[in-house]
Amino acid sequence: MPDPHDPPLRKIIHIDMDAFFASVEQRDNPALRGRPVAVGGSSGRGVVAAASYEARTFGVRSAMPSVTALRRCPDLLFVKPRFDVYQQVSRQIRAIFARHTDLIEPLSLDEAYLDVSINKHAIASATQIAQMIRADIARETGLTASAGVSYNKFIAKLASDQNKPDGLCVIRPEQGSAFVAALPIKRFHGVGPRTAEKMAGLGIVTGADLADKTEQWLLAHFGSWGSYLHGAARGIDHRPVRPDRIRKSIGGERTYGEDIWTESGLRDALESIADIVWERVERNEAQGRTVTLKARYADFQTITRARSLGQPVPDRAAFGQIGQALVDQILPLQNGIRLLGLTLSGLSSAEEEEETDLRQPELPFS
């Protein structure tokens, strides 16, 4: 149970679209419905960007090499991604969210947090709002969404994954700590495979195992993240929904069908990526001080090089120049380059404002 002296409870909904990219493709092409579908490239060094639930039953997952996916599911149908369509559908979905609240924190094209503690229709039940949103999404887009409803962001996100696809899960305040305790630690948001492996080595396999550790112990083993883990293991998360949340980085990368072996080829490839990334920077009206180059060699060794400025990178030309200077640091090439990426981080908005307190008054939870 949350401490009675903690900030007021919120009513948080986490909406997560079901197999979003693949579901859009199945919606728009009836021949794909009920079939195992992967969005991405099917040949060479292609990677699965998204997989339908039919494909997932064979173990096909996003970020999996296409050759591996085809080995697991020989009947897998590959579809080229249509990001312009996905973005358009995402805008439709966010317009549905906005009918209920302005406190919307998008995490990606297909998921977002909503704080409905105070909402535009004065509906007392967060569960009812989640049901209305899911029904509107299905009617207006032809797609399904899963929802988690709870008193904080951490548990709402866990809950949205509980009854997928097309599911709803409600975790009330008195249920939070028990719900978290029963979950495998790998289900915790932010705990990737490597961290889960480290935790297993320390005897942490479930939320209950994590809750057995003191905050001091967690700080010693996981740094500042330990405080967050200590609270999460007890169902506590005070983070507000941030509609003005600023992305930590904007970047892009590309895997090449043939390795890059020449300096000229590497520099040309970097300029192409810089064009794409800077367009995203301008679209988000972002500013950043750190440029990071990522390169993966043919033997899968991955390296990064970064440079930080005392002020934001002013324009595309400067962004490209810094990227090229970072390329200088990995020349001459001793191996072929199979992947290249460029990222701008240390971001702020163009007109950064002070944080505001988004806490809502306490209301009966339902």
UniProtKB/TrEMBL annotation:
Keywords from the named record: Cytoplasm, DNA damage, DNA repair, DNA replication, DNA-binding, DNA-directed DNA polymerase, Magnesium, Metal-binding, Mutator protein, Nucleotidyltransferase, Transferase
Entries under SUPFAM superfamilies matching the protein: DNA/RNA polymerases (SSF56672), Lesion bypass DNA polymerase (Y-family), little finger domain (SSF100879)
Enzyme Commission number(s) of this protein: 2.7.7.7
Pfam families in the cross-refs: IMS, IMS_C, IMS_HHH
Location, primary (coarse class): cytoplasm
Active site: E111
Role summary: Poorly processive, error-prone DNA polymerase involved in untargeted mutagenesis. Copies undamaged DNA at stalled replication forks, which arise in vivo from mismatched or misaligned primer ends. These misaligned primers can be extended by PolIV. Exhibits no 3'-5' exonuclease (proofreading) activity. May be involved in translesional synthesis, in conjunction with the beta clamp from PolIII.
Protein's name in the database: DNA polymerase IV
Organism placement in taxonomy: Bacteria, Pseudomonadati, Pseudomonadota, Alphaproteobacteria, Sphingomonadales
